[in-house]
Design goal:
about 260 residues; alpha/beta; 7-stranded mixed β-sheet; 4-stranded mixed β-sheet; globular; Diguanylate Cyclase and Two-component system sensory domain-containing protein
Length: about 260
């Protein structure tokens, strides 16, 4: 196995996002479409028949984004929720630490894109796409921070990010105080992070181009256990191929691979 083989094993279902409501979220619709442009997930007007529960539209004055899989609704999130979690923010909020771990939320629509292979571009090729991967990364870190034990394995391409990115460093300083065993991976750059974490360095492509954040709970079978993993690979400069998963067995397989091979 390799990181890329995990990505290649992810599914590619026919997804679309339908916007249901009175059209008041039209500017947000364009922003959402930009987020999924490279992944070819169409964002288009929908109708109440697209809703999982027609009463959903009555519970809020806002438009609702509905995730369709092979034409059937599988999840829905109010547009303001998507705005707050991803559309209204930029990477600076995470890099500077302006948004803390406890503030990271994952709307149902995004959560239900798990097991889906996506292709996302970084700046300057796109303004919003890569941000989705940053949000998922922080969500996995948040799950590890809130968990009662287990391991967290995170790659940074270059370990200097743990020193240079204030927000990232704050996250891992907080993880030092959590009952989770933290492992970080990256290319050695002569600046070993002064954090109480296990440091793994290498020079091969999986260190230079891989991006993973994997949380394996101490007891994955516990009712409140939240295994989660993001796995990406920089297929071209600033273009990421990847997926995320909450499947217990798949998370365990990814964690085993990283623990033994990197």
């Amino acid at each position: 196995m390799t990181l890329r083989s995990f990505i290649e094993s992810a599914g590619s279902p026919d997804h679309a996002i339908a916007i249901v409501g009175d059209g008041s979220a039209d500017p947000l619709t364009g922003m959402l479409a930009e987020t999924f442009d490279e992944s070819a997930i169409a964002v288009e007007p929908g109708s109440e028949s697209d809703l999982l529960d027609p009463e959903t539209i009555d519970d809020t004055d806002a438009d609702v984004a509905v995730l369709l899989e092979d034409g059937s609704p599988v999840a829905a999130s109010p547009m303001p929720e998507l705005y707050e979690s991803i559309l209204a923010i930029n990477s600076d909020l995470f890099v500077t630490g302006a948004r803390g771990l406890e503030e990271v939320e994952l709307p149902d629509l995004l959560a239900n894109l798990d097991e889906t292979r996506l292709r996302l571009r970084g700046y300057p090729l796109a303004h919003k796409e890569k941000l989705l991967l940053i949000v998922i990364s922080r969500y996995v870190e948040r799950q590890a921070w809130a968990a009662a034990g287990g391991t967290l394995r995170s790659s940074f391409q270059t370990l200097a990010r743990l020193n240079d990115e204030v927000g990232t460093r704050k996250v891992y300083e907080r993880l030092e105080d959590a009952p989770v065993e933290v492992h970080v991976y990256g290319v050695a750059d002569g600046r070993r992070p002064d954090l109480d974490v296990a440091v793994h360095t290498g020079e091969d492509p999986e260190y230079r181009k891989g991006w993973f954040v994997v949380h394996r709970p101490a007891d994955p079978t516990a009712p409140d256990a939240t295994p989660a993993a993001l796995v990406c690979y920089e297929a071209e400069p600033r273009i990421w191929d990847g997926f995320w998963t909450f499947d217990r067995e798949r998370v365990a397989a990814i964690d085993d691979y990283v623990a033994t091979e990197l």
